Amino acid sequence: MPLTLTNDDWWIAGSRLFVGLFKKFVIADLLAFLSLSNILVEQVKSTGWMWIFLYAYAFRIYFDFSGYTDIAIGMGRLMGIRLPENFNAPYLKSNLLNSGIPGT
After folding, report:
1. Residue 104 pLDDT level (bands cut at 50, 70, 90)
2. Among 28, 33, 36, CA closest to 57
3. Would the pLDDT of 89 be above 80?
4. Residue 62 gets which letter from DSSP?
5. I need a labelling partner for 12 at 20 to 30 A (CA). Which of 20, 23, 78, 93 fits?
6. What is the 3 state secondary structure string of 3-36?
7. For 92, which DSSP code?
8. Exposure on the CB side of residue 62, measured as CA atoms within 13 A
9. Do 98 and 52 meet the contact criterion of CB atoms below 8 Å apart?
10. pLDDT, tens digit (0-9, with 9 covering 90-100), for 19-34
């Protein structure tokens, strides 16, 4: 059953939506220009630049998924549904099978 929204819920939902949109449409999309692609791989001659492109790709995936997660949590909060936090530093986990998500 949806909860009634308080002023705090509106603030949290709005900030999560804004942060999620910023992560997805600014950070992740800018990293998409720098990350690995077929064209860049064919032109890169330096190992250092290849590592930069590889890390840009990893951060692009991170910010893409993190942004969508923030958007979903913010939208859920606007509808009165409190979704669990399911994106808690996945790259810092020693074991991806035990990622802190309930039921895993």
Report:
1. very low
2. 36
3. no
4. H
5. 93
6. CCCCHHHHHHHHHHHHHHHHHHHHHHHHHHHHCC
7. G
8. 13
9. no
10. 999 999 999 999 988 8
90, 96 contact by CB (below 8 A): yes
25-77 confidence digits (pLDDT tens) = 999 999 988 887 777 777 888 889 889 888 999 999 999 999 999 999 999 98
Query: DSSP characters for 70-100?
Result: HHHHHHHHHTT--PPP--S-GGG-S-TTS-S
Beta strands in 26-96 (DSSP E): none
- 66 three-state secondary structure: helix
Question: What are the phi and psi torsion angles at 5 (to 5°)?
Answer: -85, 135
Residue labelled with tokens 């991806």: 96
Domain borders along the chain are 7-83
Evaluate whether 102 touches 83 at the Cβ level (below 8 Å): no
Single-letter code of the amino acid located at 63: F
Residue 64 to residue 17: CA distance in whole angstroms: 14
Q: Give the tokens for residue 47.
A: 């190992």
